[in-house]
Each structure stands twice: as structure tokens, then as C-alpha cells.
Amino acid sequence: MKKIFFLFILSAIIFSGCDYLGSYTFKIKNSTQKTIKLKFVNKSHSNRDNVMGNNNKEEVILLPTEEKIVRIVDAPLNSPSHDCLSEHGIVYFIELVFDTYVNGEKLEKQLWQAENWTYRKNSKYSGEYYMTITDEMIEK
Q1: Domain of 34, in residue numbers
Q2: How many beta carbons lie within 10 A of that of residue 24, not counting itself?
Q3: Is 67 part of a structural domain of the chain?
């Protein structure tokens, strides 16, 4: 009986794992003198959407020279420890797709593309992407 109990405990320890949930934070800085509105195309499915103070809104307005966190995206296990956006593209970040409006006019450029983001690893379970919107990026 003790052997069975021991094997049960040993199996529970071996086969149970810790599914740490990491996250990617997406920050955007508006370095222009124009008001920029980001209208997200896909709804966020983050577990953080019900957390008080969550930044995953359908629309985000960036005033001139303002910086904001625009999305916090959950990531399984230790995904944030590497630059997933550059490796896989937007596939894992469909909730990041947005239309851009500059002073009320829709911009045809797709600023959400991977080449506009800079990645920084914060920890094994946390990564950050940063974009600075410049006048050159929003010129027609």
C-alpha cells in the first residue's frame, strides 16, 4: 500500500506542471504634433480584459507626444522570452491589428506591421514591444 501511495505522489509531482502565463505589452508613443486614433479591428481575447485598469480598449487616442500601453496580450509559458512578432508575424497577435486615424482622417498605411515594433525582453515571462509614430510614418 505504501508503494502505491509513493508511486501516486511521485507521478503527481512528475506529471503536474506549472503553466506560467506570460504577457507581451505593446506601447506606442506619438512623437508627432497630431492627434492619432487607433481603432482595433479584432477584439482582444486577453484574460486581462476584466482586470481593473486594463488597456485593451477598442479605440485608443494618442494626443501629441503622448505614450500609452495599447495592448497586453497573454502568452503561454515562456513565449515572451523571445521576439515572437519578428519570427511569426501577426499570426499570434491578431488583436493587435488596427486602423490609424490622423486628425480624423483614415491613414492607408498599416502601422501595426511587425517592422514598426521594437522588442525588449523584460523577463522570462514578460516581453515588451514599442513603437514610435513619427511624422514620416503618417505622411500620405
Answers
A1: 20-138
A2: 25
A3: yes
Residue 125 belongs to some domain of the structure: yes
CB atoms within 10 A of CB 114: 17
Amino acid identity at 69 = I
User: The pTM is what?
Assistant: 0.71
Rounded to a whole number of angstroms, the distance between the first and last alpha carbons of the chain is 77
Between CA 38 and CA 98 the distance in angstroms is: 6
Structural domain contains residue 15: no
Torsion of CA 75, 81, 87, 91, to 10 degrees: 10
Amino acid at 1: M
Q: pLDDT tens-digit profile of 97-129?
A: 889 999 889 999 888 888 888 888 777 777 888
Q: How many folded domains does the chain comprise?
A: 1
